Amino acid sequence: MGQNLRVGLIGLGTMGRHHARVIRATEGLDLVAVADPGGDRFGVAVGLPVLPDVDALISAGIDAALVAVPTVYHEDVALALADAGVHTMVEKPIAHSVEAGERVRDAFAERGLLGTVGYVERCNPALRALRERLDADELGRVYQVLTRRQGPFPARISDVGVVKDLATHDVDLTAWIAGAPYVSISAQVAHRSGRQHEDMVVASGLLANGVIVSHVINWLTPFKERVTVVTGEKGAFVADTLTGDLTFHANGTVESTWEQVANVRGVSEGDVIRYAIAKREPLALEAERFRDAVLAGPGASTEVVSMDEGVHTLRVVEAVLAAAAENRTVAL
User: Which Pfam family is one of this chain's hits (predicted)?
Assistant: First the structure.
């Protein structure tokens, strides 16, 4: 394609307004249509008519679309776009249920269209640098991935609890960083704020390659924390996705002269390195990856999150809720 991709955006809320800004700033993309049945409270349209629904968006003649409506509407909107032959990125999670996610995934696959899910954490500079260093074997064998995603309640969320809204990020990034899907998960949730859905979760699981994982996620901590710790045979990486910083804590090589301790195969504290990394806005990189994947065509090797991965993440997230409700470990 010589000219820019004509992009439509549906959902003009908290995420939609950021997507609109980024699409307009991305070379090769033109934002030509926006839609939201609830109107345009953030003034995103800037000269474009605010269309009422996905059908009107499609009628504007678009090559690609970004879906940022509430999760409960993801399936209907995405299926309409697939039917119309429009390459699409759906904000995470892919849909409100695994079955809905599978229908969305299959619709895009059957039509040979690009379908991707917007897990923007994969574009975070700290996690990208972490993944590159793991790929370069700087940690050796990975033993454990631990994530903490805590903070106050966001007013924008009404249709899901903390598991489907936030834990979905941690599940996706953990499987991606460790390079393996989940095989089992157990969890506890709590309802402490008087809302319909859970607002706290602690989950632990096992990946197919033997890596053990742990997630602490809530909406009831009065400070924001977004931390991923990967521990392996040479030490531990700590990625702070709020600041975009990556730190490496090396295992020390201090010899112990205390015989009882020396016989135990443990580690000691070694050098600590904080890497200087370029810090681009993750959403801007996500938009470029979407553009490149659309232009590359179906089947090309790209860095977007596949809808199949989106379905796996949703399957794990639903297993977290089932494990908590039934107080058992769920096999995947």
Answer: GFO_IDH_MocA_C3
